[in-house]
Amino acid sequence: MENTFPPALVEKINAMKAEGVTAEFVKIGGIRMDEPKKYDVIIDRISQDIPFYRAYLKNAMLQGTIVINNPFWWTADDKFFNYALAHKMGVAIPPTVILPHHEHPPDTTDKSMRNLMYPLNWEEVFAYVGFPAFLKPYAGGGWKHVYKVHSPEEFFHNYNQTGDLCMTLQHGVEFEDYYRCYVVGLEKVHIMKNDPKALYHERYVKGNPEPGTKLKERIEKDALALCRALGYDLNTVEFAVEGGVPSIRSRHRRGRSIRRCRRNSKPSSRRRWRRTATSGTRTRRR
Asked: Which of 6, 35, 148, 239 is the most buried (most CB within 10 A)?
């Protein structure tokens, strides 16, 4: 569980001493369907793991709270769709295929799979994707159930262990450079050189050397294009660079906690929303 960014953001917002604005961690219990609005903005970084939080956030939006990122879009979102969308937009994406579940999902039988070709044309799949490749879930994150495979034999060895997970197979880019980008407010991109092969606490490269001008412009353009298409106000996008071409390896909607920003004064219908690009949140203007 992430426990660094959330308290740092709460501390930063409160240190700004903006009139009528406070930041704190959300505390909730049983939620009524007509739960009244308690705060203006919630920054969500945990509901991807906890359905109760996700249901609560949807209800909060119904009552007028701004939630970053939009939990309704999260429900409709998955990695495979994002890959297809980015490819459609001209963003470089390694060849990717979505695969049927290895085992039947709960409460299904052979008859439920009557639309599925069997056996699959695995040679066609492998020819399109190529090796090495990454076998990974079509949704989720945290490098859970991710396998790097170099041959059909390695693929089947790992695929046979995935149970009822829906998996994708994506070509493994042999990258020369790797960058992780924070995209905030659909306007700002902070590029950080990263080494995903290093130990977790050593992955950010010291000194953060910038990419060349042309590569930097391409990374910024592609990161913004994807986040704007998905509507994510706060997001990270990772690029693997091979032959000077940055291709998106992954993107993450959230991290690990829920926080809220609340105005001390009573809401007014005359206030208008103003986007603050540097913080990725929205505040109200009197």
From this structure: 239
Alpha carbons within 13 angstroms on the beta-carbon side of residue 20 total 12
* Containing structural domain, residue 147: 95-171
Residue 208 CB neighbour total at 10 angstroms: 12
In angstroms, the first-to-last Cα distance of the chain is 37
Quick: pLDDT tens for 106-131.
Answer: 999 988 989 999 889 999 999 999 99
- Provide the number of structural domains found in the chain: 3
Alpha-carbon dihedral angle through residues 284, 77, 8, 178, given to the nearest 10 degrees: -130
CATH of residue 229's domain is: 3.30.470.20
Q: How many CA atoms lie within 13 A of 54 on its CB side?
A: 13
Q: Which of 171, 204, 235 is the last residue of a domain?
A: 171
Q: Considering 121, 146, 171, which residue would you say is the last residue of a domain?
A: 171
